[in-house]
Write a sequence for this structure.
């Protein structure tokens, strides 16, 4: 879009609209509200709250505490919670058997949360990595992550979540074709209103480390050539932007209601390109590493913590995101005056 013609100085002084708080509020282009936030939480199969060392202020929540959190979200005006599981290492296996357990941690957490505050949306990852002993998002064979065999497991997992009452399925595995398979399975079982938010452009990023601690993820590589050292064969190359648009286009064509870019702040250019290219609800995930960096810098007195939280979230809004998944959600909602 061509820039409008501007009057020369001093007829035009742009500082006039910045001279006081009231005029800055009137001309503000991007407005943050709690309704823009999805709260990311981690649940565990124990009692109470367990701090996550690499993410100051974040705790693993018991199912009872998750129910408390969803009531808190309701009171703060946060419309949805994204729930992730911490699974004890001895209960994991190579194919992530517990991922589709109808009596498992996620199913029970969904039920408790929907009973506590049914008007708050619940979103669940459709991914195997919290449940596999090798830490990968798929079925591994001979050092390769098998695409189609993984999709079969993901469909089982997604259907379990839908039956438990999950509102939004969020496939985060980056297997080819998984959105279409999930949509077909949901329709076949009558879950025509279950939403899919596809991790459509998920990059093989260094910013996921604290999350892996939070969920107790298996060690990638595992000292064996049969266990790939990273996720580069299925998550996206951080150097690629055009490929991200192709991934998003495929997921929309397969039936995604919403799409997501992950991580968030290092990929705001991708968020903007997706919004402009497709005009579909596009979300960003402010991931664990982004959270940890802000908290570490604030803890050392290098930045203003509260200002940094809101400024970082404002960046997603300015880029055009429809919302952001963040561990800061309750803090931000309170800062915004909820």
């Amino acid at each position: 879009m061509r820039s409008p013609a501007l009057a020369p100085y001093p007829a035009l002084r742009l500082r006039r609209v910045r001279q006081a708080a009231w005029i800055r509020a009137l001309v503000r282009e991007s407005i943050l509200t709690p309704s823009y936030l999805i709260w990311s939480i981690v649940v565990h199969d124990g009692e109470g709250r367990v701090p996550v060392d690499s993410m100051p202020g974040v705790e693993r929540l018991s199912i009872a505490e998750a129910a408390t959190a969803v009531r808190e979200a309701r009171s703060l005006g946060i419309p949805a919670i994204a729930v992730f599981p911490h699974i004890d290492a001895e209960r994991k296996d190579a194919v992530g058997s517990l991922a589709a357990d109808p009596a498992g941690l996620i199913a029970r957490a969904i039920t408790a949360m929907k009973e506590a505050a049914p008007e708050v949306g619940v979103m669940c990852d459709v991914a195997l990595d919290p449940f596999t002993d090798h830490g990968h998002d798929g079925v591994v064979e001979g050092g390769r992550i098998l695409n189609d065999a993984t999709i079969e497991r993901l469909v089982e997992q997604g259907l379990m979540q839908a039956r438990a009452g999950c509102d939004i399925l969020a496939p985060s595995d980056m297997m080819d074709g998984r959105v279409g398979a999930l949509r077909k399975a949901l329709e076949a079982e009558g879950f025509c209103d279950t939403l899919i938010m596809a991790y459509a452009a998920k990059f093989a990023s260094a910013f996921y480390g604290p999350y892996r601690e939070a969920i107790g993820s298996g060690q990638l590589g595992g000292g064996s050539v049969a266990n790939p050292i990273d996720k580069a064969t299925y998550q996206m190359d951080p150097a690629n932007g055009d490929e991200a648009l192709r991934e998003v286009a495929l997921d929309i064509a397969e039936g995604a209601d919403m799409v997501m870019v992950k991580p968030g702040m290092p990929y705001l250019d991708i968020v903007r390109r997706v919004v402009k290219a497709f005009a579909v609800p596009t979300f960003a995930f402010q991931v664990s590493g982004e959270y940890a960096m802000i908290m570490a810098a604030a803890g050392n007195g290098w930045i203003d913590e509260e200002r940094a939280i809101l400024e970082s979230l404002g960046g997603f809004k300015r880029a055009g995101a429809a919302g952001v998944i963040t561990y800061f959600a309750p803090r931000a909602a309170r800062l915004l005056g909820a």
